[in-house]
Amino acid sequence: MRAKENVDFSRLVTSFYLKLTGIWPALNPAEERQRWNAFVFSITFMFLGAYTEIREFYYSYGNSFEETIFSLCNIVTVALVLCKISALYIRRPQFFQLVAYMEKRFWHTNYDSREKALMEQCRYISVVFICFFNFFAQGTAFSYTIEPLIGYFGHDASARPLPFNLHTDLVMKPYIFEITFLSQFFVLVAYGIGYICVDNFMCISNFHVATQFRILQYRILNIHRGNKAEKDNGRTSELPANYADNCYTVFKDCVRQQQALIRYCEKVEEVFTLVVLWQILLFSVLICLDGYLMLLSESSPYRRMVFTFHLIGTMSQLLMFTYSCDCVVRESMGIADSVYETEWLNLPMNTSGKMLRTDLQLVMVRSRVPCCLTAGGFFIVSVETYTKVLSTAASYFTLLRQY
Q1: Per-residue pLDDT averaged across 351-367, rounded?
Q2: Which residues pair with 374 in a beta bridge?
Q3: 60 Cβ neighbours under 8 A, 6+ residues apart
Q4: How far apart are CA 320 and CA 389, in angstroms?
Q5: How far apart are CA 139 and CA 234, in angstroms?
Q6: What is the rounded CA–CA span in Å between residue 403 and residue 401?
Q7: 5 pLDDT band (50/70/90 cuts)?
Q8: What is the separation, in whole angstroms, between the first and last Cα of the chain?
Q9: Helix H or strand E segment including 59
Q10: pTM of the model
Q11: What is d(CA 193, CA 181) in angstroms, rounded to the nearest whole number?
């Protein structure tokens, strides 16, 4: 089991990106210095990119509508990344607690064969979502450099195009262009990493929590497992004397697990609620602007490719975290059905049997209140949120097209 956990691709990619961003638990002073250096470098390049985009928007505003939309789309993306990184850095002690809890309770725990199968399904769907989203997110970052490179190698050296126009003749000087181009490339890499690292962790966390609720459902359905072989056609009179006591002991462990998962979901809500709010608010604008630049603008094919990647990446990102949040809601409420499907009819009417019946009812009542991730506490995030954001983006796109 441990060997399979060590090669979990989704976890490796997520931890790698978060380490490059400088937001990951440090085990010793040397790692703490590396983490701080990585954060300083990443945030420096991000602020450099923000300055570049604000400057480009200033020069393009009022001159070209398409260039203004292009700059505005980049500014929205820059603002979204800075908001996500800032929120996660401010909440980094709580975030480190989430990572430690997942390491101890989700990844390094002994499971039986059925529970291992559920964890493998969780890893598989995490890898599929993360690979698909990361491909288009990183493709967007690297596609910004394709047009300048083709323009530079396809013309004389005096052309010197950059991914983002600085509106200055300083780049025409020797070596200044190369340094500027390299710095803008690192800006794109920093934003590409910052754009996906937070969402990768949210996706993995939600899928693992949903899987833990499925495992809990399986354990509740099998609270009688240790005594099942001693039954005789399910008749209560043939059950061993300590049957209810044993079931009640197993059930108390299940209740403790449910309480721990609820507390974990509350910590996830505390860390990521503002991140989710900003994403929901800005995704409809991003999808609208990407759609305009991809379908209606008269820009070059290379720029259309940039926003094709960006549009698909944004929609896949939105689907990834809304679907993962929806899984948590559904599986946490599924505990009530699992409780009802247990063999509570076979429990004897002794003290433990009566207490177990009463506690089963309490668990059912509590499970009707789902564990969820909200957008700033305003509404619960689910798959329905995905359709609402797309509907809002379509309305914005219609207005922009008429304009």
Answers
A1: 83
A2: 380
A3: 67, 68, 70, 71
A4: 14
A5: 60
A6: 5
A7: very low
A8: 58
A9: helix 29-60
A10: 0.86
A11: 18
The confidence score (pLDDT) of residue 160 equals 66
pLDDT score recorded for residue 229: 42
The beta-carbon contacts of 382-387 under 8 Å, at least 24 apart in sequence, are 382/322, 382/325, 382/326, 382/329, 383/322, 383/323, 383/326, 385/280, 385/322, 385/325, 386/318, 386/319, 386/322, 386/323
From 324, 374, 264, 273, select the one nearest 126 (Cα to Cα): 324
CA-closest candidate to residue 216, choices 115, 303, 288: 115
C-beta of residue 238 within 8 angstroms of C-beta of residue 231: yes
How many other CB atoms are found less than 10 A from the CB of residue 56?
20
Q: Identity (one letter) of the amino acid at 390?
A: L
pLDDT digits 0-9 by tens, 32-57: 888 898 888 888 888 888 888 888 88
- CB contact at 8 A, 219 and 341: no
Helix (H, G, I), strand (E, B) or coil at 296: coil
Q: Which pair of tokens denotes residue 360?
A: 């089963």
Query: What is the distance between the alpha carbons of residues 277 and 391, in angstroms, rounded to a whole number?
Result: 17
Give Cα 257 to chain centroid, integer Å.
23
Split at pLDDT 50, 70, 90, the class of 294 is: confident
Q: Are 326 and 388 in contact (CB under 8 A)?
A: no
| DSSP label of 106 | I
